[in-house]
Design goal:
By secondary structure, the chain is mostly beta strands. Helix content is 0%, strand content 70%. It is built from no helices and 11 strands. The chain has an 11-stranded antiparallel sheet with strand order 2-1-11-10-9-8-7-6-5-4-3, with no helix packed on it. A hairpin with a 6-residue loop joins strand 1 and strand 2. The chain starts with a strand and ends with a strand. The mean pLDDT is 89.
């Protein structure tokens, strides 16, 4: 997984993480689930990407409670609950593409994010999923 955050006037901040998770298929829905760690600053949270056609939901449960909706060309608002308080998060999806199958693939999401209605920057996720053979 590669995450990139850009803020006005600064160089992009890049984070890369390799983790094990579970991918499930249920009809036309694909779910990617993994546990957050101390490295991400979200230890105790479970993250799920739920892919349905041209839309993706990012759900976090546990120490962080949130659900963000990504649909290309649309805006979505939601509450983002953390141990430090709750914020209103506005998402405007600029790119959403995936080539996921039962054996893995790639998903890419690009979006702007506003916290409490103030734009804070641009973000991008690129997730590569591959089957682990043991």
């Amino acid at each position: 997984m590669r995450g990139e955050q850009s803020y006005t006037g600064t160089e992009p901040e890049v984070t890369e993480l390799a983790t094990e998770g579970v991918m499930t298929l249920d009809g036309d829905e694909i779910t990617l689930t993994y546990e957050e760690t101390e490295l991400t600053g979200m230890e105790g949270a479970t993250t799920r990407f739920i892919v349905r056609g041209d839309a993706v939901a990012l759900e976090r449960t546990g120490t962080i409670q949130s659900r963000l909706e990504f649909t290309r060309g649309e805006r979505c608002s939601s509450l983002y609950e953390t141990p430090w308080g709750t914020m209103v998060v506005d998402i405007a999806t600029t790119k959403l593409a995936h080539r996921l199958t039962g054996r893995g693939g790639v998903m890419e999401i690009a979006f702007t994010i506003a916290i409490n209605h103030q734009v804070t920057g641009e973000n991008r996720f690129k997730i590569r999923v591959k089957e682990v053979t043991r």
